[in-house]
């Protein structure tokens, strides 16, 4: 289980450390940073899954998501006399820092603006100015980061791993535009990196369920055991049936009955191995198919299935 999340210099978030429990609810006024907190989590997950370059490029590049405010607020700003304060001349550009702690391991990454390519002593300016450059990565044991607990440390292109005899260099040529997860993730090379990478890859974010008429969740799908619902809900029927067989079936049925008194959900098997969802509602002569459900009902069933998944990941965002 994750115990804390840390964010620095991401959009409206200057510095933030959030303790986490089994269930965490984030509330606040419009513009208070709720969406940025969620997006930072999703971005952190991308480091271990599909890479972070693409997601950052879609947001306008690293420079677009970095904190744009001053390092320190002046007295005039605190008193409300001025709204804008220029950064001090010569101050280094800010770095985007993301990280988390868990019961077993923690991970943190620091990214900055691309400095160039080629020889370290004579870098050539790069045309890929929107891409981030990985400055530092670390994996540690336990819920609190401290020097003695660090197991894997990456600085620039050098990755080191702690051994019984001290530190061993895993590689000295890791590209600065790649995370250590991209090349050091084999279990035989570094079990700690493999464990953290797979844990982060299991995170799920359910903020964009498709409920339009052509949504995959409204159609029959091949039925295979599905321990975790896909992020767009395409395998709803299979995930629902999986919960009924190896998960908390009672909680699943109660969630439907609480929202729709007298209603129930069943999964039908069709020729060719297809699964389809049937919604039985009190007063109707026949069950409704997923294609006939209202947007609100379908969204509710998707959320229930995501939260009651048979094999919950370390992090689920809704």
TrEMBL record:
The lineage of its organism: Bacteria, Pseudomonadati, Pseudomonadota, Betaproteobacteria, Burkholderiales. PANTHER family: DNA REPLICATION AND REPAIR PROTEIN RECF (PTHR32182), SLR1056 PROTEIN (PTHR32182:SF25). InterPro entries: ATPase_AAA_core, P-loop_NTPase. The keyword ATP-binding applies. Residues 23-100, 199-315 form the ATPase AAA-type core domain. This is ATP-binding protein. Keywords: ATP-binding, Nucleotide-binding. Pfam families: AAA_21. It comes from Trinickia dabaoshanensis. GO terms for biological process: DNA synthesis involved in DNA repair; double-strand break repair. GO terms for molecular function: ATP binding; ATP hydrolysis activity.
